[in-house]
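Chain A, query sequence.
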Amino acid sequence: MQGKLIVIAIGGNSLIEDPKKVTVDAQYRAAEKTAHHIADIIEKGNRVVIVHGNGPQVGYILFRSEYARKVLHSVPLDSCVADTQGAIGYQLQKALDNEFIARGMSNRAVTVVTQVEVDPADPSFGNPTKPIGSFMTEEDALEHQKNFGWAVKEDAGRGWRRVVPSPKPQSIIELDTIKFLSESGVAVIAAGGGGIPVIRDEEGAFWGKEAVIDKDLAAAILAKSLKADAFIISTAVEKVCLDYNKPTQRAIDEMTTEEARKYSEEGQFAPGSMLPKIQAIVDYVESTGNLGMITDPEHIPSALKGEAGTRIVR
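Chain A, predicted structure.
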């Protein structure tokens, strides 16, 4: 697979190897491992655009903001996403550049702070469901609801959390810039955390919204818009499984988009985990006819050779 354009989406959790040891340095060490696997692809002459998640990292920013609310201003969600785009982008960019230097490659990486347009009439704005931030007791959650106007919900028996809108991405504002950089041979890190959600007013100006965008859906739009030759979603497992965590669990090497839809309707994929990844891949594959894959960071290079991961085809 020489000289292809590949969009790779990696999860924010992939930068946290040990939940008990969450430091900036530890996240960078995890970024180094991901960068090593991605550099293998670039070294073979392929161009890469990387989209990263930011769920845990946004949660940390909000947690700090809560602790400091008596002495400092709060941070709106669009700014939280922008902050993580810069911080995580810097870690991945540095890790890739150092990997290129170690291999004697002339390639370079760059991070693009990316806005993603959403529909102001998206139904999620009237029904926020995306959990963010830390877990709370019911008492604390209701206090936050009263004092800060948060929408809060109980999260699967684990505690209460703030929930926010998660509108569907419509378009990538910086698409032309990302395309130009990619065509110039630069490894581009873009649409981090699904992009900064913005709406357009009647005069065409952009305004940030208190929301988060699913990074896999945004990555699919980016892959389609760039006419990427392949779209890979990197996650915690090497292959997609049916009957996950059951005695009958079985891995899937390849499935059609029709089979993926069937399994989704049967409830095979968890709504907050594998389901949005399957939906994003199906959207991309049906729109382009090109290859979609789901695997873990370690197996990205071999997945492109057809030796690992789950392939989704039309």
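Residues 58 and 80 are 6 Å apart (CA to CA). The two ends are 19 Å apart (CA to CA).
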